[in-house]
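Hi Y.,

Following your request, here is the sequence exactly as I used it, all 222 residues.
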Amino acid sequence: MRQFSQIALNSGHYLARHLSAINSDIKPATVHALWQDIATRYNETTRAYHTLSHLQQLFAQFEQIKHKLNEPHIVALALFYHDVIYDPLRTDNEQKSAEYAAETLRPYLSAEQCEHLYALIMMTANHQLTGLSDPDKVNDAAYLLDMDLSILAAPWSQYERYAQAVRQEYGHVPLAEYRTGRMAVLNRLLAQPKLYLTHYYYERLETPARANIQRELTLLAA
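Below is the corresponding structure, written out as tokens. Let me know if you'd prefer a different format.
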């Protein structure tokens, strides 16, 4: 896989590329302020997995499949903002992130683009393709959701770091309770006929993802 540079992400140039493609009138200072806000939020001390490294991993995937997207710049913005609000103690992070993204970017996007952005981020709450009738939007949403789950198929050492980071974010939960909850989440994933919605990701990631999930379940049950 082609490397996606953390430097490129951190510089804000990547955000500028996508925002400028949508609105050529947006000023560099505005993009810089938007990026600083995103970076500050993803660098919050309560985060261990939902960090800038998570964005880097997602955009490495994005670079591989962007040619398959109908509205790649909106999908990119959804990636930037899908975890912009994250509190492990809350269950409405996706809704808060979607609301924040739409409100923050409203001056620079059309009403339709804001609605699309909001809908994409909301889908990351349950990873279901709901409320979309436009085949192009369904396609883009499916790729977004598959990118978000791509970590499940990472090499075991990377997957293990991911699992440890998730546990760290839920450090306030007693270990026994966390194990029970985490195992329930993983078993629900395994019960799905397909983890990945697109042919591209299903063919490449379905088997290793299921193997990783099963391996984590075995460790949690030990």
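Residues 1-148 form one domain.

Thanks again,
Q.
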